[in-house]
Design goal:
about 230 residues, alpha+beta, 7-stranded mixed β-sheet
């Protein structure tokens, strides 16, 4: 059965998401331990300061073991969150973040190195299970976040898929949910940052209305990379 997409719950999902980022990026991209610590800091800041009217995280998880879950659709809670977003309200509570995957929703507290390191779906690799998925619990498969970059601009970040969930259309679904939330919240444009090596994610962005605006070489977390900036109108 197709996975469901539900809102991110900090107390439930933060440890899992930080762990999955750290392990997959270490294995698939060679990132060092600073990356996982950065994700932890970003998630902590999001939990403490985000404006739920304008900023939202989403988690994809398999249906098995969920009572009342509707396969293949966004959960009712997520639907309410999207339809309940009020354009133009809550604009003053931008969470004080430069927020981007090159600045990826990064709060002012997080070091400059953080700005721009939570990006797109990671490159392919061997399957691995996040240890925080307890036996019998629905397995979480991926995430995506919409955060405020400014009054009219949203930033996509923390877009990640478990290796076993790739190639099945789930990334496109997550991207669509995030985009629709941003549109309903009143943003007029979305931006993101990623690395050139994340070719599957870049193909998805290009196929869904995004354009690569710039690229430049960087060294992050012990790796030489080509960092890209993408954008799209809403």
């Amino acid at each position: 059965m197709p996975p469901v997409i539900r809102p991110y719950v900090p107390d439930r999902d933060a440890d899992w998401l930080a762990d999955l980022h750290a392990r997959l990026y270490a294995r698939e991209a060679g990132f060092d331990a600073r990356f996982g610590k950065l994700v932890e800091e970003i998630l902590a800041e999001f939990a403490a300061t985000h404006d739920p009217r304008r900023e939202r995280g989403f988690v994809a998880e398999e249906v098995a073991g969920r009572s009342g879950a509707v396969p293949g659709v966004i959960s009712s809670e997520a639907q309410r969150g999207i339809s309940g977003a009020v354009p133009g309200e809550g604009l003053g509570k931008v969470a004080g973040e430069a927020r981007g995957q090159i600045r990826n929703a990064v709060p002012s507290k997080v070091p400059g190195e953080a700005r721009g390191q939570i990006q797109g779906e990671v490159p392919g690799g061997a399957p691995g299970e996040a240890p925080s998925d307890a036996p019998g619990a629905p397995r979480r498969l991926g995430s995506i976040f919409c955060v405020a970059e400014g009054h009219e601009v949203a930033r996509l970040r923390l877009f990640l898929l478990h290796p076993e969930a790739r190639g099945q259309g789930l990334g496109r679904r997550l991207l669509g949910v995030c985009t629709e939330f941003a549109r309903a919240a009143g943003y007029r444009r979305m931006v993101l940052s990623t690395h050139e090596s994340h070719r599957a994610a870049c193909r998805l962005y290009a196929a869904t209305g995004w354009r690569c605006l710039s690229a430049h070489p960087v060294t992050r977390f012990g790796q030489a990379l080509v960092e890209q900036q993408w954008g799209r109108a809403l």
